[in-house]
Every structure is written in structure tokens, then in C-alpha cells.
Specification:
The chain is an alpha+beta fold. The protein has a single domain, classed as Nuclear Transport Factor 2, Chain: A (Roll). 30% of the residues lie in helices and 46% in strands. The chain has a six-stranded mixed β-sheet with strand order 2-1-6-5-4-3.
């Protein structure tokens, strides 16, 4: 599986609010950080704790890629999330580092 295919699989699981499929696209020691370098979650347990409630509360959400850049193990997405319960659209740049067939690192830069 290419890094782009891994990230797309993750994105599809995110839009489907399928926590198990979403978590399966990440390494056991995944690290998700924000634009300032602050850790959002580290490891699968924290990833599940963070995204489980988001999926439960927003079953109609949809992540749309406006633009994607790939290079080696890296995938950079300009993402828009629609359909949240609060009616707000969220935009971010997500920088993924893929190792093998799973995502090992994510940097989320909110727009």
C-alpha cells in the first residue's frame, strides 16, 4: 500500500466515523501534534480517547481534501471537515508520515 493509499484509508474511516478502522491506520506509538508542536495525542489509546467522542457526536461529518501533495513517506493534505453537529466548518493542513502501511506521525495545522 502506498503512503497516499494509507492516508486515504484513514480519511475514509474518519468520514465514516469508524473508530476501529481509523485506529487501524496508525502505528501503536503514533504521535499527533498541533501546529505549535503541542502533543494532541500519543499512542493508540490516546488516539481512541480523542477521536471516539468526536465520531460519536458527529456521525454526519465528512472530510474533504482540497489539495494533496505526496513525496516519499509524506502526505500533505489541505482538509475541510463538514457536517459537524455545531454546524462549523473546520479547515486544516495535515502532514502525515507513513511507515510501512500505517501512519506514524501527524501534524495538524488549523486554518
Amino acid at each position: 500500500m502506498t503512503p497516499e493509499q494509507v492516508v486515504q484509508k484513514q480519511l475514509d474511516a474518519y468520514s465514516a466515523c469508524d473508530l476501529d478502522a481509523f485506529a487501524a491506520t496508525y502505528t501503536d506509538d503514533v504521535e499527533v501534534i498541533d501546529g505549535a508542536g503541542k502533543v494532541i495525542c500519543k499512542g493508540l489509546a490516546q488516539l481512541r480517547e480523542r477521536y471516539g467522542p468526536v465520531f460519536k457526536d458527529n456521525p454526519n461529518q465528512l472530510a474533504v481534501i482540497t489539495y494533496r501533495i505526496t513525496g516519499g513517506d509524506w502526505v500533505i493534505d489541505d482538509e475541510t471537515v463538514l457536517g459537524r453537529k455545531d454546524g462549523k466548518t473546520r479547515r486544516a493542513v495535515a502532514i502525515y508520515r507513513v511507515q510501512g502501511d500505517r501512519i506514524a506521525h501527524v501534524r495538524l495545522i488549523s486554518k
